[in-house]
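note to self — DONT lose this again. spent like an hour looking for the file last time. sequence + predicted structure for the chain T wanted, 233 res
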Amino acid sequence: MLSITEEAVFFDQTGQMLLRAASLGGQLRANREKRIIRAVADVASTERIYRPQGVATQLYSAGNNSLLSTATPLVDWTDIQEALAFYALNQRDDREPDDSGSADPIIWMPSFILTAQELAGSAARIVNNVLDRQNNIDSPTMAKMLVPGLRAVASPFLDAAQGADQWDDASDWLIGDFKRQFIYKEIWPLQTFRAPAQNDEDFERDIVARYKVREYGDVQATDHRLVLKVNAV
């Protein structure tokens, strides 16, 4: 909550005070995105959202088969294929195996590639149409053929997080079915309010504008098998 007095506005030589006060909702929206992105990427051990049996646990690890540790920089569709092959070979259903004695692979259809902004162009080029120079026409990439519906999403909050204990390289990338693995429990949606004119605060304290923003919610991981983190180096 922010209150602006008549005196503050009068002596504001930049004319920015009321404009910046009115942008509180945008700042909170950016803060929510930052919290979600950092949590989904498991950036820091202090922000872990994967809690099996109530214990905060590293989300992307060799033990979970959710980390492709072999250096696989995101360059072209063959890197997507490498991630798909790793997942198919290593990620298994944890229920009882069938008569063959081995657990079934999980049916996995990644919906997004999540990267830092430094890989935004590479990811977009890989999953979207490119020029077929031989025939001089636009044609779908192999990535789209391998994974129909795959989309590329980038966030500057991953660039800024570089050097954190779980996100040591902004060139790392994630691929998977994020909507199935993560949930956002929203208690209050993002809301912005401005107090009406001629309220009690206006009369008693010369408050010319009052702004209130609120949002209450948190992201949680329901599983560790549906999103794969890929090391770039």
